[in-house]
Amino acid sequence: MFKAVDKNKIFDSNKKFLNNLNKDYDYFCEKVSRLNIDIKALKKKISSLNLALPSWGLGTGGTRFGRFPGLGEPRNIFEKIEDCGVVNDLVGIASSVSPHFPWDNVEDYKALKDHATSYGIKFDVVNSNSFQDQINQKYSYKFGSLTNPDKSIRQQAVELNIECINKGKTLGSKGLTVWIADGGNFPGQQNFSKALSYYIESMQKIYKFLPKDWKILLEHKPYEPSFYSTVINDWGTSYICAKELGEKAMCLVDLGHHLPNTNIEMIVSRLIDLKKLGGFHFNDSKFGDDDLDTGSINPYELFLIFNEIVCAFDQKKISNMSYMIDQSHNVTDPIESLLQSSNEIISAYIKSLLVDQKKLTNLQKENDIIGANILLKQAFNTGVSALINKTRYENNNAIEPIYTYRELNYKKEKSKIRIQNKKNNPGIV
Ligand code: PSV
Ligand code: MN
Questions:
Q1: For residues 147 and 133, what is the distance between their CA atoms, to the nearest angstrom?
Q2: Are 429 and 61 in contact (CB under 8 A)?
Q3: Relative to the alpha carbon of 280, which ligand is closest?
Q4: Which residues of the chain have a pLDDT value below 70?
Q5: Whose CA is nearest to atom 6 of ligand 1?
Q6: How many angstroms separate the Cα of 211 from the Cα of each of 25, 129, 148, 175, 243?
Q7: Whose CA is nearest to atom 2 of ligand 1?
Q8: Which terminus of the chain, N or C, has fewer Cβ atoms within 10 Å?
Q9: Reduced to 3 states, what is the DSSP secondary structure of residue 109?
């Protein structure tokens, strides 16, 4: 399925890199053969990874200081799906989109599904937005949604989530992610205890509407936009709520939703052991929920997170995981950021598969701290791009996705059709 990008253009572009790729790949094979690693199995792992793209991440993001629209950016969910098609045709591991409602509301969801299918794109989990007011909405979420002290407002937010489930059912989605902005900006503003019990009560109402084969993912975040207290502020609170709700409720870890220096890989391990880790929102950060491109700041952290996941899969503690990229592309072409991020994610994943877990366990038993550290670093420092690029080539995707993408002049071409409205658009998307 190559509708967004002409397959021949990928083929022609790949020709330039093939010679060097083959040399690098041979070197890689020779190197890992000494480590007793099954290259075929690694290639299979690369091809079967799926990263969902966030519909909102295809548009240019912004900060509260402004937004600088990019050339030829998509104007609606249909155009965003075309752009997802471009990303997936080039990298081959991003064949689904995660929509956000009501941002992505359309009249005909069946038509939206057909449109996506024609680009080889499926629908991943749906997301609900009760953190902004929409036109024609009866009550405001200014003072909260699922945890608002006013019962009618809580009910309105519950109904919004039920609508999301219904839209998702038509689209073929299998889950709902709930992140709420509820909390307080001032001491005394909110009764902590009541807010949490309202959350559980509201979520229980939503949970009842989940189809049998769906899951509901609970996303925590320590602050923003509530800067004094946030209702679902950390993984512990998220875990308690997921446990209270039932087996379809799982916790989602957004890498940016932790206070600086938090050991995220340990949180991942804890949630795995508690059987409540359901998925990830990948991004990177320097200060807080920066929503920077995955692996752009701390690729080692990403590797350590995958090390925990891979180990848990090995030990059959988990059998599936939902992976999504959640970034805000303020100053880059979102397509380039997504291509680059998917590369960072697959690299961290493959490097973590190079860790000899048995050796690591023995080193830990012997308290060989430096030995264990070297073992991890050796895997992390192994260049895996030749293997990844070769696999992409064999799957008819691009050896060098960003290079090929630039050759297409895609956004320049699209800018002739995608006429933007010239309104000044403040704020985050
Ligand atoms: C909130 O910061 C978040 O991470 C949630 O996943 C939202 O759904 C998304 O960003 C978009 O605002
Ligand atoms: Mn998120």
A1: 15
A2: yes
A3: 2
A4: 1, 422-429
A5: 179
A6: 46, 20, 26, 9, 18
A7: 289
A8: N
A9: helix
Largest CA distance in the chain: 66
CA 123 remoteness from chain centre: 13
Using a 10 angstrom Cβ sphere, with 0-12 exposed, 13-18 middle and 19 or more buried, the burial of residue 402 is middle
Using the mean position of ligand 1's atoms as its centre, give its distance from the Cα of residue 429 in Å: 9
Q: What digits encode the pLDDT tens for the residues 123-166?
A: 999 999 999 999 889 999 999 999 999 999 999 999 999 999 99
CA 394–ligand 2 middle distance (angstroms): 33
Report the C-alpha gap between 31 and 117 in whole angstroms: 40
Query: What's the burial of 378, exposed, middle or buried (CB within 10 Å: 0-12/13-18/19+)?
Result: middle
The Å distance, Cα 59 to ligand 1 centre, comes to: 14
Atom of ligand 1 nearest to the CA of 224: 2
Task: Render 329-389 in DSSP notation, one character per residue.
Answer: -SSS-HHHHHHHHHHHHHHHHHHHHTS-HHHHHHHHHTT-HHHHHHHHHHHHHS--HHHHH
pLDDT at position 34 is: 87
> Hey, how many other C-beta atoms are within 10 angstroms of the C-beta on 30?
9
Sequence-distant (≥ 6) Cβ neighbours of residue 28 within 8 angstroms: 383, 384, 386, 387
CA angle 125, 129, 135 (to 5 degrees): 135
Distance 176 CA to ligand 1 centre (A): 13
Q: Are 145 and 153 in contact (CB under 8 A)?
A: yes
Instruction: Give pLDDT, residue 362.
Output: 98
Ligand 1 atom nearest to CA at 219: 6
Tell me which residue has tokens 């932790």. 258
